[in-house]
Amino acid sequence: MKESRRSFIKKTAAAGSVAIVAPTIVSAKVFGANDRINAAVLGLNGRGKSHIQGFMAQDNVQVTTLCDPDMNILKNRQKEFKEKYGDDVALEQDLRRVMDDKDIDVISIASPNHWHALSVIWACQAGKDCYVEKPGSHNIWEGRKMVEAAEKYDRIVQHGVQLRSSPAVNEAIQLMRDGYIGRVYMARGLVFRWRGDIGDQGFSAVPDGLDYDLWTGPAPKRPFTKNLVHYNWHWHWDYGNGDVGNQGIHETDLCMWGLDVGLPTKITSMGGKFLWDDCKEVPEVLTSIYHYPDEGKIIQFEVRPWCTNTEEGATVGNIFYGEKGIIVVDGYDKYKSYLGQNREPGKSGDDGGIAATGMDRGAGGTDRHFTNFIDAVRAHDKTLLNAPVETAHLSSGLAHLGNIAYRLGKVLTFNPHAEQFVNDPEADEMLTRNYREGYVVPNMV
């Protein structure tokens, strides 16, 4: 699979219109097989817990620092860490002090979406390699800046889409490359997740122990509400990107990987809120179409929030359509295929029955994904990465384009080489944002 993946990266990494500046520094540290790698995890309320587990499962890797703007969460994670691993771990609320710590080699980012790109850029500038949760960026412009920073500072950056480290998913991609279902012309991404009513808790005092200014970081600072901190920021535009930019990044990434395409030329989206009278700003239901007329390919993407059917047994996954049949990727680590008009069952595969037995996904693709990252860090070789920074920018960018089309309510024409819309200043304004002083995403060129 490496040749197919690398050809995809080579083709799509050139999407930006600005030339990449040559690296200005070399690796901050060269690791031998016996050198311990020290890791810091940023963002500990959700996926950060899996990041701790993923790093601590690696040979000669130690999580030495936990960072979160909420000291209450930090103290809970510190206690859990001691109980599970028998080690002490340092706590830090301000990620800038983590970046300044010369003893930390890698940064793992599981903070809210609006912090991802700036955290990656600061880590690269500090000479640290990093693993960043999906989506890699909160908007398209800062995604490109993240790619430029990794190149300029010669850093290893892995995107947290663990299905790229799944043997079964790689096998499915290879089948498509080999023509198993003929010419593949369409991919369908599915995000059918139970997302309930979050209500509207109004404004309240900032809880003790939370540095709300740090939590807000690059985003506009709103009066504090429990509807933002700690999870429901996903459903507010200033901080999250809806479910297409949450769970959906796994699927946008796989759609693009399977079709072997970059960013599209035509985008349209439609959806809305149909179930809950709550304070979510993002749509509950969203259907987006991404058209690649020059390649003769198309992506359909659908988000649903509540009671629904499955599609070929999948509720979160991807379906690829070819002239000879279809391939269905269910979740993170299994696939099946059907051939011909009579839908004859074809080849299938899974990662050791992990999904079927209900085991935590950390037992499979996630831990492999961290292993892949650490291998690349030790070798200081980004070509080893299964999900390099370019894929973070592109898979996140696809979600951002769909959201922009939804918010503007019109069909958009996009120039994927310039990464700008065609004759549409209103849409271009939504490619970036205004950043708060002290938290500005820097231009790398």
Automatic annotation (TrEMBL):
Residues 192-256, 368-439 form the Gfo/Idh/MocA-like oxidoreductase bacterial type C-terminal domain. Residues 341-360 are annotated as: Disordered. PANTHER family: BCDNA.GH03377, OXIDOREDUCTASE FAMILY PROTEIN. GO terms for molecular function: nucleotide binding. Coiled coil: none annotated. It comes from Draconibacterium sediminis. This is Oxidoreductase. Residues 37-160 form the Gfo/Idh/MocA-like oxidoreductase N-terminal domain.
